[in-house]
Recover the amino acids of this structure.
């Protein structure tokens, strides 16, 4: 029998700043639940001062690249420049990838040639049931209507984009520090095809930012920056705080 090469080579890229507590588990879930369907796994060590690099390298086949200039978009850009696949999957370092996540990615891109970017929501695994309830309300009452109205939506810790589209976009906007960067990705990539947001394409993630910053504060920041990026093509918030 002939060996049939897969149409899509998925590069998994994980930006990580001081993530020694979470990165190992994140990689374990990704490796276990991908059934060897990732072309490569890259951790971008974004100026970490802890053992993020060593924890990552404990997993066989994982490549670590160093980005000395701290910033999420700069870490994304380093991953983009390093990766060799034709689909780039970006997840956060505190995520737990569910089963069938990779299979769904392949299925969605294979059935729609016009699809350029796929994303889905978060399910928080370490917050209270009441907080989980309100995040679901936020998704269905705000996120989904915004997606239907504007035609694009990306959650930065859970999206997959075609390399050829990133090439046309000249990669990520590294002038954006944090807030609004996911909306920027969604808006700019939508110029080249379909950006799809699927509620069932979720990823489990830590709720540490929700817990430490407060849900209402975060929702306000995200709504403000979504609207600012959509209408003004720039984020409204310049500063952000890390929670580790």
């Amino acid at each position: 029998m002939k060996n049939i090469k897969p149409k899509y080579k998925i590069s998994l890229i994980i930006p990580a700043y001081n993530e020694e507590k979470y990165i190992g588990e994140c990689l374990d879930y990704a490796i276990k639940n991908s059934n060897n369907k990732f072309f490569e796994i890259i951790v971008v060590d974004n100026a970490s001062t802890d053992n993020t690099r060593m924890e990552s390298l404990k997993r066989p086949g994982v490549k670590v690249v160093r980005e000395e200039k701290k910033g999420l978009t700069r870490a994304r850009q380093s991953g983009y420049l390093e990766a060799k696949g034709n689909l780039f999957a970006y997840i956060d370092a505190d995520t737990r990838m569910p089963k069938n996540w990779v299979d769904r990615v392949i299925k969605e891109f294979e059935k729609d040639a016009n699809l350029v970017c796929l994303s889905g929501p978060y399910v928080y695994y370490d917050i209270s049931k009441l907080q989980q309830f309100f995040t679901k309300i936020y998704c269905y009452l705000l996120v989904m209507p915004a997606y239907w109205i504007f035609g694009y939506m990306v959650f930065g810790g859970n999206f997959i984009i075609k390399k050829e589209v990133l090439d046309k976009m000249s990669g990520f906007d590294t002038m954006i520090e944090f807030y609004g960067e996911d909306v920027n990705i969604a808006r700019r990539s939508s110029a080249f095809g379909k950006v799809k947001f699927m509620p069932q394409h979720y990823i489990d993630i830590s709720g540490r930012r929700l817990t430490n910053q407060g849900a209402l504060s975060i929702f306000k920041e995200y709504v403000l920056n979504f609207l600012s990026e959509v209408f003004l093509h720039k984020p409204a918030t310049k500063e952000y705080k890390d929670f580790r």
About this structure: The chain has a mean pLDDT of 95. DSSP finds nine helices and ten strands in the chain. The beta strands are 10-16, 38-46, 62-67, 87-91, 95-96, 115-119, 122-124, 158-162, 194-197, 203-205.
